[in-house]
Specification:
Layout lengths: L15 E3 L9 E5 L1 H7 L6 H5 L10 E3 L2 E4 L2 E4 L5 E8 L5 E7 L16 H16 L6 E13 L3 E11 L5 H10 L1 H15 L9 H22 L2 E2 L21 E2 L23 H16 L7 H9 L2 H16 L10 H14 L3 H10 L6 H10 L3 H11 L7 H12 L4 H10 L30
Antiparallel strand pairs: 1-3, 2-8, 4-5, 6-7, 7-9, 8-9, 10-11
Helix pairs in contact: 3-14, 4-5, 4-7, 6-7, 6-8, 6-9, 7-8, 11-13, 14-15
Amino acid sequence: MFQTPSTYLDLPEAFWQRQQAEPVRDPDMLLWNEALAKELAIERLPDAVWGGSETPEAADPFAQAYAGHQFGHFTMLGDGRALVLGEHVAPDGRRVDLQLKGSGQTPFSRRGDGRAALEPMLREYLISEALHALGIPSTRSLAVVSTGEPVYREEVLPGAVLTRVAASHIRVGTFEFAAQSGEEYLQALLDYSIQRHAPEAAEAADPALAFLRSCLQKQAKLIADWMGVGFVHGVMNTDNMALSGESIDFGPCAFMDRYDPATVFSSIDSQGRYAYGNQPRMAHWNLAVLASALLPLVQGDAEAEATAVLNEFPQAFQSAWRQKLAAKLGVLDPTPEDDELLQGFLDTLHTEKLDFTRAFLDLESDPPDVLQDWMQAWSRRVDSPDAARERMRLVNPVVIPRNHQVEAALHAAGEGKMKPFHELLAALQQPFDPALLQSPFAEAPAAGTPKAVTFCGT
């Protein structure tokens, strides 16, 4: 299955530590992503492999070292409960990491047990696959294996191991770690990251700046994609920003129901640092941390040059967000002059406390009275209201992972009943299917439903 060794192991040993997964009592496959396995040409090996009890002959598993700013505070980290089994080259030439999550202690576990509970692993599977179906770059989930062993948290929970597929696990925090280790390590990581994620940067006059700009552009688009479906990541620490441009780590994430830029779901984000509306600013902040780490490799007046690149982010994000929101509203060829119209729609949603996802769908069929004034301006801007609505149906999801539905499915799975999970997953894999408009999965939560609170833990 592993056609190639892990090229990451060509980096200096400070970046990784070889480690075998800890065997589990009774590995049992609960979820196998057949479509993803077929796409990547990955063989379904015995459950013991995906549970960590057996290691494929060609695999050379290791835990990665990295650092990170967590809620603004620098910390030395590392894969405390995850191992990269190896790399795999898909038929289309893509190179991906296969990582076991919840596979036991590593040298970076600190006081953790290295294990994962079932419900958070199912949550990552559900959300990552939902994002992919929505057309948003994301790490993917290949498998969830129950371990037959308890995990001790606030209560005793069933354990599980998730297999994550990622373009790589290089993060902003990986560069922070390299910068702490020395310029030799930083240069090695930059060269490797350019080769893997931004080969065009190798030919630039200043490869470090070109790589920074490539990461910036990917993040601007990713955040616009998130916000276009009401996604709140919840913990945008620098160790959770993948430089491939994929969404990664799904602990306290959730999807916004009623539109409110201040929406926060994470139980520990009391200041709203990672609120829905703050996500562009926090991405910019994380990129500034990346730029700071790269400064020793930037030519000329490094600080001025890096700052100039960073200053491109607000415009890059605003352009991506304008394109995203305009498409959701059926507006062709948007320009900055359209920003007032586009923002006016969101302002109305906020003022009237309307559901974000349903508002776009209702605009296609039965707009509420509170939008009538706005629709007059919209009708003058679009080529044809009917043509605009046809375009909108192609990009506005009918279903998203509604928090109350996700929690209900996970709770049932925790009790051994997987049917609700499979039903929700099936709907989320066809998010634009108009037939689902009559499905309960398309319904907004009833008035008075408590706002979801999510927790770190995946």
